Amino acid sequence: xxxxxxxxxxxxxxxxxxxxxxxxxxxxxxxxxxxxxxxxxxxxxxxxxxxxxxxxxxxxxxxxxxxxxxxxxxxxxxxxxxxxxxxxxxxxxxxxxxxxxxxxxxxxxxxxxxxxxxxxxxxxxxxxxxxxxxxxxxxxxxxxxxxxxxxxxxxxxxxxxxxxxxxxxxxxxxxxxxxxxxxxxxxxxxxxxxxxxxxxxxxxxxxxxxxxxxxxxxxxxxxxxxxxxxxxxxxxxxxxxxxxxxxxxxxxxxxxxxxxxxxxxxxxxxxxxxxxxxxxxxxxxxxxxxxxxxxxxxxxxxxxxxxxxxxxxxxxxxxxxxxxxxxxxxxxxxxxxxxxxxxxxxxxxxxxxxxxxxxxxxxxxxxxxxxxxxxxxxxxxxxxxxxxxxxxxxxxxxxxxxxxxxxxxxxxxxxxxxxxxxxxxxxxxxxxxxxxxxxxxxxxxxxxxxxxxxxxxxxxxxxxxxxxxxxxxxxxxxxxxxxxxxxxxxxxxxxxxxxxxxxxxxxxxxxxxxx
Length: 515
Prior knowledge:
alpha+beta; seven-stranded antiparallel beta sheet; 6 helices; 21% helix
């Protein structure tokens, strides 16, 4: 019996020993893994973001904090400021890190993906330096510089200098990656601080400018015959092109054929008489007065005949266009009888236009200070400056008309935007002022229930929704009275897409990147 209990105790002791060894081994492995993770985390530095603008490019880069002797990954996004689209794939870029006179370079001949280049740099000295990006594309060279780049001696120095207060705030912010912005019409810009006076908003009617339109009338009575069945309103016509014939061949009175034949007969007779007397004068068979009378009669009949033959033939009067342009309106129909002087057709060149705006009496004191204007079309809501249309302010009315009690302001523009005479446009008449204001493009403003806001750029991939108070507008720009300063970059195109991105999900500043 004692031998049996001894055997059981021995087995229990062996099992307990195995369990202790297994526990110690597991703890040792866990400690080793923890040490390895700690060692690895020491070398995984937080990302530092750089945003730099040159005259041609926006550079947005994410890089590891730089430690001497360690590799640093730099993921750089290059955006053309001309259209806010990614740099072309054919571009070659060289990154140069210069610290204390020592240079580290890497050249990439192609991007990781369009607009995105991934550099790997290994600094060899510590201190504050500069990171240059030399861009070669389409035979041109550009340079973008990050001015302040710190290289630390070791991780301890890095962590002691790291300031978490520099991290961009994500309060009320929206992530909109470069890859997203490159796919849409997107742009950012600084607000403008400039002179911004009151603007008078009104409506103007478009009419052809003086000298741009001509009405062609009948020179004689007769029946109108169209020379071309395709003569319709809007058709382009050339100078000298035949439009109508006014026929009187079937009329008893004012018959063109009879008049032309009579004029030709008179011309031939008077010509022969003048030539005969020109010979007789040599022998003094006629007097000087008789020759002079014959000459006058001849020249008069010649003028009559040439005028008739130029504008008439046996069929009747030939009506021709006097300018290159378009048929604006046809006042007659084929076969209609017209009297001399009756309008037949109006031709317009449509190159220069007259805009007549009507202004209320309360703005009367502002009229002398109007110096320019912005014009917005009603059919597609496109806006143009007066300067872009090579326009000018012609005059403003000194008195109101009897039927409207409004004061006219006349502007002349060149028709670069396919304006149509007879239609209306919205006009903002701008006045001169010495007052300065912070202004933003109207495309930057969004409105919700009467509250206006803009998206302020925190980084090129993070935007803060900011409420602003607005003042007046000139159709293109709006005054910001509070909520925004002139040194804050905002979204000027694509603000609605940024708003939609805000409602799609969680905030992830690295979403969409290729790392």
